[in-house]
Design a protein that fits this description.
By secondary structure, the protein is α/β, with parallel strands linked by helices. The protein has helices at about 5-25, 30, 45, 50-65, 65-70, 100-110, 135-145, 165-180, 220-230, 265-275, 290-300, 300-305, and strands at about 40, 75, 80-85, 90-95, 115-120, 150-155, 185-190, 205-210, 240, 280-285, 315-320, 325-330, 335-340, 350-355, 360-365, 370-375, 380-385, 390-399. Strand 3 and strand 4 form a beta hairpin. The structure holds alpha-D-galactopyranose.
Length: about 400
Amino acid sequence: MFKKMPFVAFLFFCIHILPATAQKKSNNNIDLAPTPPMGWMTWNYFGTDINENIIHEIADAMVASGMVKAGFNHIMIDDGWQGGRDKINNIIPDPQKFPSGIKALADYVHSKGIQLGIYSDAAQLTCAGYTASLGFEEQDAKTFASWGIDYLKYDYCGAPGDSVTAKIRYKKMSDALRNSGRQIVFSICEWGGRQPWFWAANAGGQLWRTTSDVRDSWHSVMYNLDINATLESHAGPGHWNDPDMLIVGLRGSKGPAGDNGCNDIEYQSNMSLWCIMASPLIATNDVRNMNAETKRILMNDEAIAIDQDALGKQGELKINTKTWNVFVKPLENGDYAIAILNRSDETQNADISFTQLGLDGKYEIRDLWLHESVGNSKNYKGLLQIHETKLLRLKKLSN
Ligand code: GLA
């Protein structure tokens, strides 16, 4: 191609076309979140009671516990970090909570192999009443970039209810992030009310909340599941449905998500169901004090591999009865992941034929919580405890 190109044309290509192509690619949604983002967020456990020491401790604990190695590679500072604006209207952190500033915190977190996320809102004040970004989008995006921020959760409290305004306000901030000189993942948080799955990717989001705030209860997990479960056609690499944070390991602790808590079978279901739906995996428990069960659930590498599979398909809800929810998620190597949830309040015997799920033939069935093969068959039979989810990986053997 280049041999036949006149020198001037070649020069033009190098100066104008090449950088433009590179820019387009590096700004594109897929590069920012090729698989669902993973990490840990301050909100559900700490609320606004946060400070830089807590973030340091969390970062250290995430490395020491193996969370970072398992893929939880972000820390997101949610609401409550802000300290208003300075004389030239730059947003500043609360000097009592973050005396060393956010840049120093980002440097620390980055040195641990973790990315740093922050939070703002498309109105004058955030949900918890702190300074937000409306009218300061360009300036705040540049400030976040200068601090080394990698991810922005952008909330919608205090903003008008219509979708037209929401699209405009989210696009404004995503454009500002693109112009900030740094690659920053944009997480849209308007709680699903304006059906963001239809427009949030075009407004520049890599993920969007589909639901109201999750709480630490089984009822809440089911509530958010039911909304998110039918939205699979809207998810894919660079654009993800977000049914809110994981509640695994909160165990009834106080905090904004505080509720009765779940048992470990239910927390394991929370993890399984979020993985089959290719949801962002954002833990919110106190990672400094995790018991063995919480670690086992959050750091199941085989479950995480389903969530993070490069094909980027959200599992499809194939069976939906009062007792059973069964999801099927095609995987990059040709395998399928299956999640079978017993929603009922009794132990149940499952007998699910794969043909019923649109999967013909015989499969090797691997149970991703037992970490072992449980047979070669055309169906799955097994006992499920109340609210248990079986997470299986099927490898085709024959037709
Ligand atoms: C909203 C969001 C939550 C959290 C709080 C912070 O409720 O949905 O996830 O960010 O605001 O105030």
